[in-house]
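hey so i finally got around to running the thing on that chain from the lab meeting. sorry it took forever, my laptop kept dying and i had to restart like 3 times. anyway pasting the input first so we r on the same page abt which one it is
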Amino acid sequence: MAKPPDRLGPLNLQQQLGLGRQCQVWSAFDTSEGRQVAVKVLMPEFVADKSQRRQLEHELRVGQDLVHPHLIRVHRLEVHQRMPCLVMDLFPHPNLRRGITSASERERTMPKAVKILIGIAEGLGFLHGKGWVHRDVKPANVLVAPDGDVRVLDYAIAGKPPGAFARLLWTKKQAQGTPSYMAPEQIRGQPFDFRSDIYSLGCLAYEMLAGTPPFTGADQNDLLGKHIYAAAPLVEAANRNVTPAASKLIRQMMAKKLADRPASMDEIVRQLKQLRFFERDPGLV
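ok and heres what got predicted. didnt touch it at all, straight out
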């Protein structure tokens, strides 16, 4: 994929932050507002794909009202040199995936684990308050600063949960999400709600503490089947420094049925702030 021009309208591109199949993400200086931003650029070879343009428009619709300290806000969508550009908040830190891929990185992340989880839950709670379910909560979609401050990003598949009448008329939908973190109802194409993100956050929490996702499989179908049928593993079995109370909360978050999970992100935050998460200070272990 070719590099975009150094200047796109008022946007002076500086450093590539991410690379996808159709888009590149860059840090940039926005001369129209006099500040640093992040820019997602749809490359020219994909401009004719209307679904890609609609996805950027959807991200703007979801993200433009997200004024919250733990969410990336999307500011505007504009086109320069035939390339649609989505202008967003810049939070110049790596994603959580990089902080948990090796034992040494997890050791550095562990003292901040509770702060990270609270920040994610607070951000998602605000998103839920705006009526949206993220549907793709995973380590790659959480940016983490050295002090544990976080930003949740990527609203490409965020959706509005169906109301009571829509549930009555619901027809099976195509599964959307990332297999290692998808709630059973997402996999089945059934009605979802805010508790679907709670399941995904439980999977993220398990992986951060245990070093591996809660479920793995020989192939994708095997993996998805485990999310639907296999009992959630105990994180304390993989990390003996995690207390039984914390392990129980994470297992509740990964309950197969929506009704068996905590009711809201506010409840998750409350429990994270109240319970003792580790047997010993992870910074001293």
